[in-house]
Amino acid sequence: MLLWLTDFIAQFISAFSVFQYLTFRTMVSVVTALGLSLLIGPLMISWLKRYQIGQPVRSDGPASHLGKAGTPTMGGTLILVVIATTTLLWGELSNRYVWTALLVTLAFGGIGWTDDYLKVRRQNSAGLAARWKYAWQSLFGLATALFLYLSAELPAETGLIVPFFKAVAIPLGAGFVVVAYLMIVGMSNGVNLTDGLDGLAILPTVMVSAGLGLIAYLAGHVGFASYLQIPYIPDAGELAVFCGALVGAGLGFLWFNTYPAQVIMGDVGALALGAALAVVAIIVRHEIVLLIMGGLFVLETASVMVQVASFKLTGRRIFRMAPIHHHFELLGWPEPRVIVRCWIVTLVLVVVGLSTLKLR
Q1: Domain ranges in the chain?
Q2: β-strand 159-161 against 169-171: which pairing, if any?
Q3: Which of 217, 211, 276, 291 lies closest to 79 in space, CA to CA?
Q4: Among residues 190, 216, 1, 204, which one has the least CA distance to residue 100?
């Protein structure tokens, strides 16, 4: 919206032409989202407390988490409102990729909101039935995958790019739909599983989003894409503004979510943010790089799958508790230590993921 306004004003005041630069609007989106989060955050937390929208705690979890019961939850709503507002203010609204990323984020946020609402209403950790949650995730994930496949105009938009190799692009054909679906649903659940400690999921999400924003800008720039020998995806660069909004909103939320948390993200934020990361990576054709940068989310998901498989097959558990961050807690690590070390690991993985752009 403001992009159109500044474009009009630039006809009379040349200084406003700076808003036409994607890099500038990306930086402005970060600042806008951060400012909105810090402004709206206290009001939302106060509202959640007033209406006693508190977090139910699973009875079989670590004993140290019992004190978290009643902490305001559904704070991810703040993130979604800020991302949507900032993207609509500074994004190019005629860009189909911007709308795809935004609508997927809000759709998965709707699933998470329903899950959180049922938890609060019933006052236990059992929210939306798993089969219904997965069914809705599958519906939205498959619809998004089909849309991107059917609207693709270039072969590069549906090929699987293999990092570290200059000219390895595997034509997926209709298989693109399967890969995209698995990425969206899998990453959505991966971030959700990671969101078990104060600030554990949000900062890695911010770091990965920043990395994807840079990749989106490069992939949408014909010169940089040619130089780095990555697929050129016309119009994908505008996703940098969306990623900037996610970074700012995430940092603003972390201000209130850092240990000990004043508010908890809930499924409304975690499911949405995971899907957002996935759809951006799919559009810019860097799914494998997302799996590298988001290795923490992959590890958390894998730990649950291994734990369940081991118990069903052998009757024994490999970890003291899954997801794996609870395992480290039960080993005696204080919660802040688990959180910060996971942040450090994610920072290293994001650097490794970005290095694949050059090491080809």
Answers
A1: 2-13+29-56+71-306+340-355
A2: antiparallel
A3: 276
A4: 216
Give pLDDT tens digits for 89-143: 999 999 999 999 999 999 999 999 999 999 888 777 677 999 999 999 999 999 9
List, for residues 141-167, the tens digit of each pLDDT value: 999 999 999 999 989 899 998 887 766
- DSSP per residue over 107-125, as a string? HHHHHHHHHHHHHHHHTSS
In this structure, how many other beta carbons lie within 10 angstroms of the beta carbon of residue 279? 30
List 72's β-bridge partners, or say none. Answer: 54
- With 0-12 / 13-18 / 19 or more C-beta atoms within 10 angstroms meaning exposed / middle / buried, residue 143 is middle
Cβ neighbour number for residue 312 with a 10 Å cutoff: 8
| Cis peptide bond upstream of 323, omega within 30 | yes
pTM of the full structure: 0.94
Q: Which residue has the tokens 């946020």?
A: 109
